[in-house]
């Protein structure tokens, strides 16, 4: 059965999925935005689980439990900071989505939710980021064996939700 690719407007910390993705920074020690919201909702055990991971490179991802979240796991990824587009930002953002799908698959996840990685504090243009997300996730799902039945693009703003709906309607 093909994976359902959907978009919703929600606080990602409320989603009862196997894994949610965190848009973290290279320290994995917390921050603002969605990272701060996830750490607050998961409780202090999440920081204790992140500390021994030794940080994470941009474009890579690491797995922890979800602790007090409804999600069983958190996949922490580090998106690129937007510097104008000439510093490999698009390829690094695509790598984030790919690594999260690989880690979710290794953990046996059937449902996974992504936030709009890099489009907040890291200032990646949201239209280009959404196009990269939809293209790379849909292509990866079509070309790999995986247990994923549903992948959700969890938008915080109505503008992002409209972008994802328009992109998803084309595939
Ligand atoms: N649920 C879903 N999406 C959210 C939520 C939420 N609760 N809160 C914010 N967003 P950002 P980045 C959206 O800045 O650009 C942190 O300090 C937000 O509207 O959280 O990858 C980290 O520690 C935006 O669309 O992440 C890093 O230092 C998207 O999530 C840095 O920010 C991403 O915005 C990472 O920056």
Detailed description of the structure:
With 171 residues, the chain is of the alpha/beta class. The protein has a single domain, classed as Leucine Aminopeptidase, subunit E, domain 1 (3-Layer(aba) Sandwich). The chain contains five helices and six strands, in the order ββααββαβαβα. It has helices at residues 33-42, 45-50, 89-106, 126-143, 158-169; strands spanning 4-9, 19-24, 61-65, 73-78, 111-114, 150-155. Strand 3 (61-65) and strand 4 (73-78) form a beta hairpin. Helix 4 (126-143) crosses helix 5. The longest helix has 18 residues, at 89-106. It is globular and about 40 Å long. The relative contact order is 0.22. The model has no long low-confidence stretch (mean pLDDT 98). It binds ligand AR6. Ligand AR6 is lined by residues 11-13, 23-25, 31-35, 37, 79, 115-122, 154, 156-157, 160.
Rg over alpha carbons: 15 Å
Note the gap between the termini.
16 Å
Order of helices and strands, N to C?
Answer: EEHHEEHEHEH
Distinct ligands, ions and cofactors found in the model = ligand AR6
Count of separate structural domains: 1
Percent of residues in helices: 25-40%
What's the overall average pLDDT, rounded?
Answer: 98
Number of helices: 5
List the helices and strands and how they pair.
Elements: E1 4-9, E2 19-24, H1 33-42, H2 45-50, E3 61-65, E4 73-78, H3 89-106, E5 111-114, H4 126-143, E6 150-155, H5 158-169
Parallel strand pairs: 1-6, 2-4, 2-5, 5-6
Antiparallel strand pairs: 3-4
Helix pairs in contact: 3-4, 4-5
This protein binds ligand AR6.
């Amino acid at each position: 059965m093909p994976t359902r690719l959907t978009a919703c407007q929600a606080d990602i910390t409320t989603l009862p999925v196997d894994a949610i993705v965190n848009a973290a920074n290279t320290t994995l020690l917390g921050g603002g935005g969605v990272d701060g919201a996830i750490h607050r909702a998961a409780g202090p055990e999440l920081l204790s689980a992140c500390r021994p991971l030794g940080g994470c490179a941009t474009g890579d991802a690491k797995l922890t439990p979800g602790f007090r979240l409804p999600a069983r796991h958190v996949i922490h990824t580090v998106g690129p900071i937007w510097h104008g587009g000439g510093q490999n930002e698009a390829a690094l953002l695509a790598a984030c989505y790919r690594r999260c799908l690989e880690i979710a698959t290794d953990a046996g996840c059937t449902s996974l939710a992504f936030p709009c990685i890099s489009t907040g504090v890291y200032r990646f243009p949201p239209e280009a980021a959404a196009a990269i997300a939809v293209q790379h996730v849909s292509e990866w799902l079509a070309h790999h064996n995986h247990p994923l039945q549903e992948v959700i693009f969890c938008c915080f703003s109505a503008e992002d939700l409209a972008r994802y709906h328009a992109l998803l309607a084309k595939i």
